[in-house]
């Protein structure tokens, strides 16, 4: 166990300098943001998109929030910018479980229906998210392992932006922007960035072979 901890510390050392009460406030804020985004997403799904500015209507913001890429990116942001991997797991779980709660409470109490099957997909994803977040936290670290983790994240984002198993074309422009933001967030030294981008391509290809496009 000590060897594993030492290995992980060499990849990225946790920063435990933030006071406990600040950590709790940050976690509460992330949970509230998740709940608000869940409510917003369902409100837009139910027809409120016409109330948005024209630019947001043109990029199809409602369907964008209903696809997978933006939530991968948000989970990554929460993970890599948290001070420790444990806090990353906690904060990411709070974000997703509160997002799911906001979305389906709006479904049930405002719209009067509850799609249980689809809800369970997101509940399962929320339950798995702490493990993924713990791993993703090390993407901002140093060494080969950090590069591989970054490549996996970018590969999944790339697979949401481009279809590569049946030719090559853009699936949705907002997903391309999401992938580019992911590249910026996970950027490192030029050679390492190029390496993670190269590795991400076969990861995206394999992902599309085994996991149907969700979007």
Walk me through this protein's architecture.
It is a single chain. This protein is mainly alpha-helical. The chain contains ten helices and two strands, in the order ααααααααββαα. The protein has helices at residues 2-11, 20-45, 54-58, 61-66, 69-80, 85-111, 116-136, 144-161, 173-185, 190-210, and strands at residues 162-163, 169-170. A two-stranded antiparallel ribbon has the order 1-2. A hairpin with a 5-residue loop joins strand 1 and strand 2 (169-170). It is globular and about 55 Å long. 33% of the residues are buried. The mean pLDDT is 88.
Oligomer: single chain
Number of helical stretches of at least 4 residues: 10
Mean model confidence by pLDDT: 88
Radius of gyration equals 18 Å
- The proportion of residues in beta strands is under 5%
Outline type: globular
The string of secondary-structure elements, in order, is HHHHHHHHEEHH
* Uncertain segments: none
The profile of the biggest β sheet is: 2 strands, antiparallel
Pairing-aware structural class of the strands and helices? mainly alpha
Helix content: over 70%
């Amino acid at each position: 166990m000590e060897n594993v901890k030492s290995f992980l510390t060499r990849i990225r050392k946790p920063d435990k300098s933030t006071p406990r009460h600040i950590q709790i406030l940050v976690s509460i804020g992330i949970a509230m943001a998740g709940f608000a985004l869940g409510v917003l997403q369902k409100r837009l799904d139910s027809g409120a998109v016409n109330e948005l500015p024209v630019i947001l209507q043109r990029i199809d913001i409602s369907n964008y929030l209903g696809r997978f890429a933006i939530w991968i990116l948000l989970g990554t942001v929460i993970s890599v910018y948290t001070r420790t991997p444990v806090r990353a797991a906690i904060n990411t779980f709070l974000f997703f479980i509160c997002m799911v709660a906001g979305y389906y409470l709006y479904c049930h109490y405002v719209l009067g229906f509850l799609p249980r099957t689809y809800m369970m997909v997101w509940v399962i994803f929320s339950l798995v998210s702490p493990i993924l977040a713990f791993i993703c936290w090390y993407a901002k670290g140093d060494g080969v392992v950090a590069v591989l983790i970054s490549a996996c994240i970018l590969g999944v984002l790339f697979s949401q932006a481009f279809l590569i198993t049946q030719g090559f074309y853009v699936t949705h422009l907002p997903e391309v922007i999401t992938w580019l933001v992911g590249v910026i967030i996970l950027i490192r030294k030029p050679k390492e960035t190029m390496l993670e981008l190269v590795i991400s391509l076969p990861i995206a290809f394999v992902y599309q072979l085994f996991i149907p496009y969700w979007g």
